[in-house]
Write a structure and sequence with these properties.
Elements: E1 2-7, H1 12-24, E2 30-38, H2 54-79, E3 85-93, H3 96-107, E4 111-116, H4 129-137, E5 143-147, E6 158-162, H5 171-184, E7 187-194, H6 202-214, E8 220-226, H7 231-241, E9 247-251, H8 256-261, E10 277-281, H9 287-294, H10 299-302
Parallel strand pairs: 1-2, 1-4, 2-3, 4-5, 6-7, 6-9, 7-8, 9-10
Antiparallel strand pairs: 5-10
Helix pairs in contact: 3-4
Length: 303
Amino acid sequence: MKKILLPTDFSDNAWNAIDYAAELFKDETCTFYLLNVYSKIIYESVHLSDIPSERTIENTVKANAVTNLKHLKTTITHTNPNQKHQFEIIAALGSLTDVIEDVVKSEKIDLIVMGTKGATGTKEVFMGSNTVRIINSVKKCPVLAVPDNFTFTVKPSEITFATDFTHFYSKEELSPLLELAKSFNATIRIVYVQTEDGSLTEEQKFNLGMLQKYFKDIKYYQHTLTKGDSVSKTIRIFTEELDIYLLAMLNYSHSFVDKLTREPVIKTVAFHTQVPLLVIPELGMSAAYSKTIKKGSSLEEIQ
């Protein structure tokens, strides 16, 4: 059974992500956790007697959160009736990232699905600040970010996996991508955007070889693109031209996602979430793997 966490602030944006998740996994047995994280309310009054006790305030806020979560659960079960799906509600006081980390650990969550804002006004942003914080803070669980203007039509038959081949991929790291591809019977398109002379280093060739080995049971294609205005825009155009409805990236130090999420505002040529984005966390590479690569061992020796 797949366990999926659905953070919500009861906005239309959050609802869109919940509806998308229910449709995307409609053929799988899932437990969805509807999570609302609330904060303390600070009262200001000239008369201390007018200020309710801290416990009373917290109980009231929690009761409202639980009521809204129950209503949301009723709505989603009526909108998307599915005997394979069950919904649990969680209302918690604290910081969003801390609570999500706790729930991921305690409930053994497989995937976080949440909505994200796209462009606002004349500024283009990578995604909403809450989504960025979760991507950068929650290191043990992949995040599927759903743009607020994206609606579910069909399951993704193709998935773009954008990479620069500079990271050593472990099979465990790539398991969320592999599982989705197998579940949807989707083709993976490995996209590399060349920024200099285009030739791969020995390390990049080795990492590409590892990807090919992991993807041997899945239909995949390799694409080398020439960088245009920016790497991000090149990937976006590729995804749009091929009508690909899911983009996946691995988030590690100095990676494409890492650089994007640490910029407060992306310039107008930068990436802009048009389709759902699966961000896979780095799980770390063992010292043994590092030594093996440095010694120039073959792929078979690593397995």
